[in-house]
User: Which sequence fits this backbone?
């Protein structure tokens, strides 16, 4: 359990932290390559290899997360394809209870995500998690991905916070590393961001499986 008396602000990632990363992994590894294969008359395997190669080259940059960039590069309506499997968008276990608990404890809760605004608004409309958040910040609005130190300086200018009294939760080790370098005191990693994949062994940061580990289970 965290010492909540030492925390005023909670910064939360979305995909893989509040929401199940299965949706995004399935989209990028299976669904989008399938649509690209159909549009270009190639095999699914060829399309998957192409998408993996192209995304690996841009990993950690804003373009990697930008739906409009991929629409231009792949010559597809990526946002429309994104919505074809929206039934897979799901909130991770205990997330709603956790967000309500933050409100009860009077903690300032900010969503800080690399998600492109088009996909972000769609997921918020489906899940409704924004009702429990004080602010929502996309890295696309700041011009830097969370993997960059520039993101954290820009976030501080946009939404001032005390790093020594801030908790940041994310599933991305590179992002957590950037937050640590910036000076955020309290860091947590999600062990199983994708419900269809096994939990990871995390040694670089304190890690949890679900949010009930830090706020306690919902009372029955």
Assistant:
């Amino acid at each position: 359990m965290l010492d909540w008396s030492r925390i005023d602000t909670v910064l939360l990632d979305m995909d893989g932290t509040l929401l199940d990363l299965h949706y995004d992994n399935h989209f990028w590894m299976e669904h989008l390559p399938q649509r690209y294969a159909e549009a270009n008359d190639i095999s699914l395997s060829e399309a998957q290899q192409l998408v993996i190669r192209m995304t690996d080259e841009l990993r950690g940059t804003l373009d990697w997360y930008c739906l409009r960039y991929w629409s231009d590069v792949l010559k597809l309506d990526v946002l429309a394809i994104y919505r074809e499997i929206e039934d897979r968008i799901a909130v991770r276990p205990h997330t709603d209870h956790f967000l309500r608990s933050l409100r009860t404890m009077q903690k300032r809760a900010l969503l800080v995500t690399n998600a492109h605004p088009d996909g972000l608004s769609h997921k918020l409309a489906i899940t409704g998690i924004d009702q429990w958040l004080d602010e929502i910040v996309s890295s696309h609005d700041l011009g830097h991905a969370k993997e960059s130190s520039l993101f954290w300086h820009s976030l501080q200018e946009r939404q001032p916070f005390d790093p020594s009294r801030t908790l940041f939760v994310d599933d991305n080790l590179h992002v957590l590393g950037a937050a640590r370098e910036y000076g955020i005191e309290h860091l947590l990693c999600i062990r199983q961001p994708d419900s269809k994949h096994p939990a990871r062994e995390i040694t670089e940061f304190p890690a949890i499986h679900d949010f009930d580990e830090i706020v306690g289970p919902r009372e029955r």
